[in-house]
Amino acid sequence: DGGITQSPKYLFRKEGQNVTLSCEQNLNHDAMYWYRQDPGQGLRLIYYSQIVNDFQKGDIAEGYSVSREKKESFPLTVTSAQKNPTAFYLCASSIGPNQPQHFGDGTRLSIL
Amino acid sequence: KNEVEQSPQNLTAQEGEFITINCSYSVGISALHWLQQHPGGGIVSLFMLSSGKKKHGRLIATINIQEKHSSLHITASHPRDSAVYICAVGSPGGGADGLTFGKGTHLIIQP
Lengths: 112, 111
What we know:
- The complex is a heterodimer.
- Chain A is an all-beta fold.
- Chain A is built from no helices and eleven strands.
- By secondary structure, chain B is mostly beta strands.
- The A-B interface holds A 31, 33, 35, 37, 40-45, 48, 50, 56, 58-59, 88, 90, 92, 97-106, 108 and B 1, 4, 30-31, 33, 35, 40-45, 48, 86, 88, 90, 94-104.
């Protein structure tokens, strides 16, 4: 079955460490997105990519970095510059802009 | 930047009741999405609409572009409908830059 796989489901990070969240899709979608969800808030866009080797900052990109070297993969790195990284991170993909988005099951990141 | 407001924030109802969740937004959009998030966190896309009405099983979504308002209805509600329902909108330029989300409506259907 086609879908989006995020790993790991739970992730713990020590202060000052970078950590990378994985997002893989086998839907042959061009567009991929990373969102952050905090309690009591709506999802917020971190980065998005409409095509391989191209990506754009979203509303809250500071402290994060991404790459899009393959169509199937859009990993997100949470750097030590992100002051409040504890959150639930969701990856999504779509055939293109303005199309329904398919979401992964999310990764919950906590700081030790 | 679009502002997306949902109401109510929380809703508890009895099994079988007709449920309505509302969403309003501040500026023009390319499309509106209704999403469902279960306790584990995974999100499923329910509807994408830019005009009129769509129906899928017991779920109905409507949108009024002039009033910048959408509603999600659930008929004959069931405990398995318990979830967070999220409204999201795409930007007028075509939504290439992702969606803007409401804070969600937490729905509990009691047996």
